[in-house]
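To illustrate the input format used throughout this study, we show a single complete record. The first block contains the structure-token representation of the backbone; no residue identities are included at this stage. The design step must infer an amino acid for every position from geometry alone.
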């Protein structure tokens, strides 16, 4: 394990729900000082109280990460940041032929540009100090393209490309960039995203609890490891995708076709 998190200042975006909320509580248990960001201030305040009850210092900053100025304000309010977790994001699943332009752009503004704006806001201070860790919550949808999830996949492929590039630019200057790529996680995410639109075969991978992803995020903040993919089934399928991409897509299409005709 690398640097521990006691008294470190950790900024978590998308902390009002799901993975971000669970991550906030996990960091609080590890005795970090938290700065929680999202648009819904009332929810943030409730979660901040839960974090404080665990003994953590915690402030909230109402933030829309799609707005560059909001991201700059968030980092200004946070002060000296040891860890930035870029987690805010959402999906609207649809086939490319019918996807609404506004959905495609708003997903990119939040999932990708939100990550870029928060990173650009925090990077100067981390580079000046020669330390800091940025954890980007991507997805297995950023490693493999899935039917009817194209707009969302594009945002997560963008996050992964950005993260890999940034890591190579800053690692030798003391700043670590880590990625966490979950499969399906049981959160409010699917209120918008409609799980039923996911390819049948992708639904074979069991959904995991946000607390499991939260532990992976906190571990990434500690050790700065390049990438974590979870759960194991998703990790193994991503390995196949990266080694034999055509085979992985053939399997995905064939198994999905069988499952979708049955349902
Ligand atoms: N659930 C899954 O299966 C899954 C799988 C892989 C990756 N992920 C990724 O995990 C991350 C968290 O998702 P989740 O599953 O925890 O979903 P969730 O429960 O719906 O939480 C999404 C969070 O993002 C915040 N958010 C959305 N738009 C925002 C904006 N413009 N500015 C600031 N905050 C914003 C929401 O807060 P407000 O609405 O209060 O702003 C909320 O806190 C996302 O990046 C998602 O792509 C999820």
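Output of the design step:
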């Amino acid at each position: 394990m690398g640097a521990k998190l006691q008294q470190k200042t950790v900024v978590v975006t998308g902390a009002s729900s799901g993975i971000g909320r669970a991550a906030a509580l996990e960091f609080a248990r590890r005795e970090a000082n938290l700065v929680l960001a999202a648009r819904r201030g009332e929810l943030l305040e409730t979660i901040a109280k839960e974090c404080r009850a665990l003994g953590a210092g915690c402030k909230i900053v109402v933030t829309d990460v799609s707005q560059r100025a909001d991201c700059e304000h968030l980092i200004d309010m946070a002060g000296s940041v040891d860890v930035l977790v870029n987690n805010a994001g959402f999906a609207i699943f649809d086939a490319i032929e019918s996807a609404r332009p506004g959905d495609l752009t708003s997903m990119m503004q939040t999932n990708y540009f939100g990550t870029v704006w928060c990173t650009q806001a925090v990077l100067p201070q981390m580079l000046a100090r020669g330390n800091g860790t940025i954890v980007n919550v991507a997805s297995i949808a950023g490693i493999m393209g899935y039917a009817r999830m194209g707009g969302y996949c594009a945002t997560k492929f963008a996050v992964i490309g950005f993260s890999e590039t940034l890591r190579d630019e800053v690692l030798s200057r003391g700043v670590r960039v880590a990625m966490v790529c979950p499969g399906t996680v049981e959160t409010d995410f699917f209120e918008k995203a409609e799980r039923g639109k996911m390819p049948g075969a992708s639904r074979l991978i069991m959904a995991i609890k946000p607390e499991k992803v939260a532990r992976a995020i906190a571990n990434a903040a500690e050790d700065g490891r390049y990438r974590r993919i979870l759960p194991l089934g998703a990790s193994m399928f991503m390995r196949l995708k990266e080694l034999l991409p055509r085979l992985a897509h053939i399997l995905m299409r064939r198994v999905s076709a069988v499952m979708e005709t049955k349902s």
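Structural context for interpreting the output: Strands lie at 9-13, 33-38, 58-62, 83-86, 132-137, 175-182, 227-230. The longest helix spans residues 101-129.
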